[in-house]
Design a protein that fits this description.
- By secondary structure, the protein is α+β, with helices and mostly antiparallel strands.
- 53% of the residues lie in helices and 16% in strands.
- It has a 7-stranded mixed sheet with strand order 10-22-21-20-11-18-19, with helices on both faces. It has a 6-stranded antiparallel sheet with strand order 2-1-3-9-4-7, with no helix packed on it.
- Helix 5 runs parallel beside helix 22 and helix 21 packs antiparallel against helix 22.
- The longest helix has 37 residues.
- It starts with a helix and ends with a helix.
Amino acid sequence: MDEKLKKRGRRILFSLAVFFIMLLLDKGGALPAVFENRFLSFLCFLIPYLFCGFSVLRDAVSGIRNRRPFDECFLMTLATIGAFLSGENAEAVAVMLFYQVGEWFQSYALGRTRRSISALMEIAPESANVERPDGSVETVDPEEVSIGDILLIRPGEKVPVDGLVISGESRINTAALTGESVPRSVRSGDPIISGCINGEGSLRIEAVKVFEDSTVSRILSLVEEASEKKSRTENFITRFARVYTPIVVCLALMLAVLPPLFLLLAVRLGLTEPTVFALHPPLSFLYRACTFLVVSCPCALVISVPLAFFGGIGAASSSGVLVKGSNYLELLAKLKVVVSDKTGTLTEGNFEVAELLPSPGTEERELLFQAALAEGLSTHPIAKSIREEYRRLFGGQDPSEGGISETENLSGLGIRSRVNGRVILLGNEKLMESCGISYQRAEDRAATISYVALDGRCLGAILIRDRLKKGAKEAVAALKKEGVERFVLLTGDKESVGEAVAGELGADKVYAELLPEGKVEKLELLLSEEREKGRKGVLAFIGDGINDAPVLSRADVGIAMGAMGSDAAIEAADVVIMDDDIGRLPDVIRIARRVIRIAVQNIAFALIVKICILLLSALGFANMWAAVFSDVGVAVICILNSMRLLGRRERGKD
């Protein structure tokens, strides 16, 4: 608890102690004569009332001034003033006091849900150590770091920007970012993301992104925006409270005024005896109206439902998944179809040359050399794998530093490069056929095959493979266990590769050889199939590349990989998996469904109790103490129900 919450708690405890002393005196304890005078009794009970309820009175007046009077503070003020007027001083104080108890529980619960969020907000580094060309080290603001700067990360320091380790070896703590409690080893050549805490060894890293584009900055932006997007349930509760509160105020006013008027009219018309007022005095109807107001206060709904969703976002973030709003948490609970990109999402994205198949009369070195030349200006993982394989096998200078003068990307086919006046083609079978080049077809279901041609003659084929991510197969099985009915794979690779990966994963369907626009078309097809069948399940797409951004935006829920994913994909997504582990998605679905269950439980319990006691209070069978329970008691029970989610998360069950 922060100091402000502690201070509120002490004020409530003091008011509670004074109230119970007053209550004992009022019931015939010491100095009962003081309370025989109604005015003196009112003044005595006014002390704890003002001490604990001054802030409520102030907020009620402020709401009236701002033309937003119909809130909980207004209802509590109106009800307690009515109770004082009807002579029920003790019950007026009880209503205000226990309302404040409920508000304190709300603040306490919200504080607990903010722990994981506040932990994320603290990951922002305060400084960066930039190594200058003369060997000196200058401490600067992380926002002043430029791409290419060499940074020194000492033991215990936070990594200020995303970078690449160029020297040193250490273990980094990524718990605040990904929820992973086990430190991860890094050494020269490994990527490292901002916000991590360095272990015992010193590291020198090269900045690959400025602070504004780094992981830590993106996380902070996502967290700040998350609370702005409310779920349908939360929006319903907000709209319900706006309409419901004025209605119950009018009903309470009618309850206080109309029955006495009807009785007076009945006496005047001779329909009943004047003694009816002895049995039903006008102030008794005012008391009923005040009880009605206390019961009708929508605290339990307004507090507990958003608290459940906010707690769900906190639970997800502590598991390494950022949900950009509670509306997406609600959609995840209904997830039925998951569509996923392959490369970098389900596979490692670290391509390796598996086999060289040179044509007759062509050496392996010539085949690989020409392919590396053609890919000289490309940053695609396949291009990097070809260049690295050439250096590994034959050493020497990087062939990409040759005389490449022009490169043209042929969408869905490959590339055409002009090197030292010669034309090199590198791509799939369709490229060879479209250019009229004779080639020998290579067969390998699990590999991506790139054919290489020089000046119209095919030099052979290069087989490149990518490995499944660790735990990807288990993650797909866990998703189906959580109620996902279909898992669909989209890939730009050839059909045989896609089918091999889908079979290994346990996917239900695969669409291969897709261009970026083809992925959008297939997603539209899947969405229309779901709607035509009358299914109300949600469809999610998982991706990480720039070309996945349109598909992420079109899906009901877009899920992006946060560690190595592109900025465009993260911006377009609704959910971000910070450590690229798809195995975290089933956990988030469980959290989302638990949140929905808790929200529904709170709504049902609050409405049932309130409706019952509203009817009883209107008929005069429920007093103010029952009203206090139906308002504050129900609110506290709903808050405690929402806090179950926090307790389970903290014990690691999520």
